[in-house]
Design brief:
By secondary structure, the protein is an all-alpha fold. The protein is 71% helix and 0% strand. It has 15 helices and no strands. Helix 4 crosses helix 8. The two termini are 39 Å apart.
Length: 290
């Protein structure tokens, strides 16, 4: 017994140490980015900045906030993310709910066809040709329609729906409710944890994605914030201030890149804690019944 107790303590200590190291590995780079964005030009150029700001200043953030293109991309990305999340959840719900019905003809076939897309895809070039043939290039629709539903998320929601008591839907049907009213009045109110969880999945996915915009968008007015940030980082150039002219050369590119990263990350960080409490309840409840 004593040996088992010692072994368990050693194992627990290893787990705790591994988790701590993982947390440090995730947090330190972000702290470094924040420190770079808040440090003086001389400190950044001389590479004195680690995880704490050196000679605090907010000049870089003032420069970023004066960039009208950056502010426009931020507002556009927020609207794009909200619209995408709403549309994606509507499509996911309308796909998941019918597949919970045992009497749906072709139910297994439809589910199989959807699951095939999780493992096989046409590839980047066929996707681009399809979007081009549909005349969606340089449109907001090209950022919404191609990835409007995740089959993985649909399966989670389907499992959640199946975990709800069937007697509730049967009682509503006896009272004269059709399937649409049962879905809206009974199923969806009971599924708020799962809906909130999947909504956050969709929102984070849309917010962090820039590859589709890189392929399909050439008009600057349709650049989401992540594509704008990608251009700043990949080109290692200073921001192009449309309203105020060119940025002064006194600000190092590293500070501008760091401030841009923080600027683009803050909105999703603000939303995340409000919905995180639904993560465990939403996903685990959806996994009770497959």
């Amino acid at each position: 017994m004593h040996r088992n107790s010692v072994s368990n303590k050693i194992f627990d200590s290893i787990i705790y140490l591994s988790v701590i190291l993982l947390i440090v590995a995730c947090v330190v780079p972000f702290l470094n980015i924040i420190a770079l964005s808040l440090s003086s030009n001389s400190a950044v150029i001389s590479q004195q900045v680690t995880v704490f700001p050196v000679e605090w200043t907010i000049d870089t953030y003032q420069t970023v906030l004066r960039d009208s293109a950056m502010l426009y991309s931020l507002g556009y990305s927020i609207v794009l993310t909200v619209v995408y999340t709403i549309l994606a959840m509507i499509v996911t719900i309308l796909a998941a709910y019918p597949l919970t019905k045992q009497n749906l003809k072709g139910r297994s076939f439809f589910l199989l066809i959807m699951m095939v897309t999780m493992y096989f895809s046409g590839g980047i070039i066929p996707d681009y040709i399809l979007v081009k043939d549909l005349n969606l290039l340089n449109t907001t629709s090209s950022l919404l329609l191609p990835g409007l539903m995740s089959v993985y998320n649909m399966i989670i929601l389907k499992s959640f729906f199946q975990s709800l008591p069937e007697s509730l839907a049967e009682a509503a049907a006896i009272d004269g409710c059709n399937e649409l009213r049962i879905l809206i009045r009974i199923i969806l109110p009971l599924s708020l944890p799962a809906i909130a969880t999947l909504s956050l999945f969709y929102a984070v996915s849309r917010w962090n994605t820039f590859m589709d915009a890189l392929f399909y968008i050439t008009s600057p007015r349709l650049y989401p914030i992540q594509l704008k940030l990608y251009q700043i980082i990949s080109n290692s150039q200073q921001l192009d201030i449309q309203a105020e002219g060119a940025i002064g050369s006194s600000i190092p590119p590293e500070s501008l890149k760091a401030a841009s990263v923080v600027f683009a990350t803050v909105p999703i960080l603000v939303v995340y804690p409000w919905l995180q409490k639904y993560f465990v309840s939403g996903v685990m409840l959806g996994a009770v019944k497959g």
